[in-house]
């Protein structure tokens, strides 16, 4: 087990409408200082297919894509003990503080990417949310990790379609690259 720190902050702005939360960045993502940088992770191909828009490998272009589509991106975990990139090995997790995003942006939906992100969100984040705060729906999406190789890319893209509705697009508008 290795103790890891997230290493970089959330990607969001005041116009963000949905918040996508992973568990913790992979070693490659921590090394690059940006989200989903393992070339075998299918997050970015899922987004390209969903929005019918080429995104490319550059973090600045990826960040611009997310801002343009009002998508905030972060992870549930600020630090934890983990073996490599194996979510199943996560222990001693410390959550990120979502308060700045939830107070400054109009987040209408939270999406968690994978079983561990969902479990840790429910366990570590939800209990700390203010009871008098807005009720924000949470939807579990499948993991885009190479560990979820049994799920085809087209099936992942279908599973991620609720993001389009949450930001106010129809599937056809997403396909046109809004």
List the main descriptive attributes of the protein structure presented here.
Uracil-DNA Glycosylase, subunit E; 3-stranded antiparallel β-sheet; 178 residues; 4-stranded parallel β-sheet
What does this structure look like?
The protein is α/β, with parallel strands linked by helices. The protein has one domain (2-173): Uracil-DNA glycosylase-like domain (Uracil-DNA Glycosylase, subunit E, 3-Layer(aba) Sandwich). It has helices spanning 27-32, 43-51, 59-68, 99-104, 115-125, 153-159, 162-166, 171-176, and strands at residues 2-5, 18-22, 71-75, 77-82, 91-95, 109-113, 138-141. It has a four-stranded parallel beta sheet with strand order 3-2-6-7. Strand 4 (77-82) and strand 5 (91-95) form a beta hairpin.
How are the secondary structure elements laid out?
Blueprint: E1 2-5, E2 18-22, H1 27-32, H2 43-51, H3 59-68, E3 71-75, E4 77-82, E5 91-95, H4 99-104, E6 109-113, H5 115-125, E7 138-141, H6 153-159, H7 162-166, H8 171-176
Helix pairs in contact: 2-6
């Amino acid at each position: 087990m290795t103790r890891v720190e997230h290493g970089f902050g959330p990607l969001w702005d005041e116009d963000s409408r949905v918040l996508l939360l992973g568990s913790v960045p992979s070693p490659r993502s921590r090394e690059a200082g940006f989200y989903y940088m393992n070339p075998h992770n299918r997050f970015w191909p899922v987004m390209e297919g969903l929005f019918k828009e080429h995104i490319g490998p550059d973090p600045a272009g990826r960040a611009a894509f997310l801002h343009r589509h009002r998508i905030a991106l972060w992870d549930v975990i600020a630090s934890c003990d983990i073996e490599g990139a194996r979510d199943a090995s996560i222990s001693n997790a410390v959550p990120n503080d979502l308060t700045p995003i939830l107070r400054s942006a109009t987040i209408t939906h939270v999406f968690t990417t994978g079983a561990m992100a969902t479990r840790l969100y429910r366990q570590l984040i939800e209990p700390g949310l203010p009871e008098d705060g807005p009720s924000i729906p949470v939807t579990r999406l499948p993991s885009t990790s190479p560990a979820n190789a049994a799920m085809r890319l087209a099936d992942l893209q279908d599973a991620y379609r609720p993001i389009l509705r949450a930001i106010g697009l129809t599937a056809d508008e997403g396909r046109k690259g809004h």
